[in-house]
């Protein structure tokens, strides 16, 4: 081939290699990859490791074909009896946890990483759950502090040690893997969870979870300097005169204060106005929620992503307005809950929010990803 074409080919190959091997970083309110802006336009797919390798490939192929860049998925599944389907990562027996590194444990997650890499995608991996789905915090509490309230997950020394041991296994295994963009401390941490309300020992205005987030994020950074770290929270505010419930004290998360934690690289926010009591004004409420977090992003000068969002009615029109607001407000990025696929066993899990390639929302999601990339 002519020399100019050959040199261009080499340059393209080098760029592809760099983009697949570099670690995503932060610079001000942007994510970067090898010195260029990295656009977080993506989806959640918590269920990936519970499927066959072929179905994992199908899901990632659909996601990549839509122009998305980033997938958030679960790095947890705590069980008290051996699971004979899908993947589980930690087995608890009489208060003793054993991390499953076999083919139906971390070995299975190895394939999730491998397939994501092959499809040019990055992963945000969440390491435990506030809710009882897939085990989460409640298993730690029931195994190590029987009779304790949910919020002792954040303060009990035995629980913190056990969780750090679990984190160590995951982070050490993948600390040199650039396909992973970030670790998250938990999915939607709150003082209360699936098993009861908060105790008086958990500060519902934010200090308990803030201290825990500082401790755990610093621990991750101490063993893995390569990856970004975030909380994975819903972005609750703590306003004295809140306009609506999610702006009010009560769940134990202070979004503004948590953004100041030096070992957290970016902020996260979720949006489910229907289940948060805003059914009468869900679309415009979501616009205000995005705008408020974009303002907090600018003040903190850290990236913030709308990493979960969903409505069950008027999805296409609502999401179009929310995507437009993300782009115009300067919010750094977004991950829809959730882009689905047709797998060998049928549609991927649908909790009322899933959108599929043949549906009306998918084109909206695709065009929004392109617009976000163009915004830079």
UniProtKB/TrEMBL annotation:
<keyword id="KW-0378">Hydrolase</keyword>
<keyword id="KW-0964">Secreted</keyword>
<dbReference type="GO" id="GO:0046355">
    <property type="term" value="P:mannan catabolic process"/>
</dbReference>
<keyword id="KW-0732">Signal</keyword>
<dbReference type="InterPro" id="IPR001547">
    <property type="entry name" value="Glyco_hydro_5"/>
</dbReference>
<dbReference type="InterPro" id="IPR017853">
    <property type="entry name" value="GH"/>
</dbReference>
<comment type="similarity">
    <text>Belongs to the glycosyl hydrolase 5 (cellulase A) family.</text>
</comment>
<dbReference type="GO" id="GO:0016985">
    <property type="term" value="F:mannan endo-1,4-beta-mannosidase activity"/>
</dbReference>
<keyword id="KW-0326">Glycosidase</keyword>
<feature type="domain" description="Glycoside hydrolase family 5">
    <location>
        <begin position="63"/>
        <end position="340"/>
    </location>
</feature>
<dbReference type="InterPro" id="IPR045053">
    <property type="entry name" value="MAN-like"/>
</dbReference>
<dbReference type="Pfam" id="PF00150">
    <property type="entry name" value="Cellulase"/>
</dbReference>
<dbReference type="GO" id="GO:0005576">
    <property type="term" value="C:extracellular region"/>
</dbReference>
<protein>
    <recommendedName>
        <fullName>mannan endo-1,4-beta-mannosidase</fullName>
        <ecNumber>3.2.1.78</ecNumber>
    </recommendedName>
</protein>
